[in-house]
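Example (one chain per record):
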Amino acid sequence: MSRSDSRNTARLYRMVTDEHVCPYGIKSKALLERRGFEVEDHPLTSREATDAFKREHNVQTTPQTFIAGRRIGGHDDLRAHFGLHVADEDATTYQPVIAIFATALLLGLAVSWAAGTLATIRTLEYVLAIGMTLLGLQKLRDIESFSTMFLNYDLLARRWVRYGYVYPFVEAITGILMVAGALIWLAAPLALFIGTVGAVSVFKAVYVERRELKCACVGGDSKVPLGFVSLTENLVMMAMGVWMPLRMFVLQG
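Predicted structure:
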């Protein structure tokens, strides 16, 4: 048996040019090495070489991996070959929301620790306000895409399209002001307003009309389903809009 046919050897063809080094080729090579394979690396160093390889093997993409003389395929095919999870690009997921709120929790605890308010109600305020800020930031990454997805269900945005462009700024600024405890007279009504409109819109779309939509809460490329998470986000803003001025009134009294 030749070295190229050994079951412990894999041949990898990947694009490596001055303009582009294929990241999936790097991932495939690393995965093969972690699995104990000796990798015969065949860089395709020009567009011409890449196109010729594709024609020869009748494939549409690179990288391509061969094990024991059999073509496995690209990076996703290689993961599937080893029994690893392959992400479904169309599948819904709560991962972005979990990441945001986990980060908000840790940042809230950190800020509360630094401010000497750990284990007080202010800690929860920090966590929720930072969560609002991060959600606003996610929407601002691609405001055009967000506003388009937002129009699928938001009642006010459908009547006034510009609201979809204003909303992310309002959410982010409101969260920042609440973290600082500043201009609550402005931040609280804004949070209460956008939270109420959002809660009514989500409830109508999901629980009345029974529509299956993606939530724009983490941006326009979201795979998060519209529903409980979206409703919770808006209810939290409503609660903060009521609680923050009430707390300040009580403290001042």
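Caption: Residues 113 and 150 are 36 Å apart (CA to CA).
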